[in-house]
């Protein structure tokens, strides 16, 4: 089961949501792989901390190495599992980002490697029960590759009015991508993140989106400083603060996702 977490708006919670859902999935005993397609590498940093650049040069890091071997003579030699790293957490695995993803993008795009991630993940389906893909805040080669490779799309939404406009353009892009590349991609739902129930505007905004028929998960995520602490300490919430309110919300959201698995898996 492959999920992509995407919104082309930055700072909406893609990385936080990807990592925390995946960490819960792993804690529940599911072999879980996180793929970090954002050149900023926030997910990589969150889950494994600083990478030793001497031991792992940029071109040897996870996603970059995977795409590298699709170009030229080293075509798809290694099993994609060779690019997966362990994390400090049981059952949780990571295909890390790399600082050279931006430099590689033009070549991959011009050589039409947009289906290569999907092909690689086809080979990993046996190895992992759940795959969560974190994306950059752009509709670029990497996020498109992820949307083509995934069965489900989870969209983080941060409740400001600019977010709404970007949500509509996101939906347009998704419809086009479904038509052109991946008719099986389901828009599983929108995650309301950093929801403030005290303020009037966020509630109204969410109600309007619901009236427009957009799929919104029942569980809303609150804003909490625990999230920042969790990033700083490289410890997902389920590990850092298992009984915190925000962790409970993530557990509830994860339960909603798990309830959908049978339907989405085909
Ligand atoms: N529920 C939350 N409560 C508090 N801070 C949050 C929450 N979700 C995300 N953040 C913070 O917002 C910032 C952006 O989140 P991030 O997950 O990196 O978004 P994206 O990956 O979409 O850019 C980070 O500093 C993160 O710690
Ligand atoms: Mg991010």
Automatic annotation (TrEMBL):
<feature type="domain" description="AAA">
    <location>
        <begin position="5"/>
        <end position="186"/>
    </location>
</feature>
<dbReference type="InterPro" id="IPR027417">
    <property type="entry name" value="P-loop_NTPase"/>
</dbReference>
<dbReference type="Pfam" id="PF13614">
    <property type="entry name" value="AAA_31"/>
</dbReference>
<dbReference type="InterPro" id="IPR025669">
    <property type="entry name" value="AAA_dom"/>
</dbReference>
<dbReference type="InterPro" id="IPR050678">
    <property type="entry name" value="DNA_Partitioning_ATPase"/>
</dbReference>
<protein>
    <submittedName>
        <fullName>ParA family protein</fullName>
    </submittedName>
</protein>
